[in-house]
Amino acid sequence: MKAWGRLKAFWRRGSTNRYAVEDIFTPNKPATHTYIERTAVDELLSKALDTPGKQIVIYGESGTGKTTLVRNKLAAKDGMLIWTRCMSSMTFRDCLIDAFDSLEVFYDLQVRDRSTTSKSRKAGGNVKLVQGESTRESREEHEVTSQRVLPPSVTPARIASEIGTIGASWILEDFHKLPLEQKKGLSQVMKIFMDISADYPSLKIIAIGAAGTAREVVALEGEMKNRVAELGVPLMTESELRAILTAGEDLLNIQYDKAVADGIVAYSSGLAGVCHQLALNCCLAANVFETAETGVRIGWKAFEKAILQYIEEESDTTRGLFERATKTTRERKYDNRRIVLRALSRF
Question: Which of 262, 318, 293, 333 is nearest to 14 (CA)?
Answer without folding.
Answer: 293
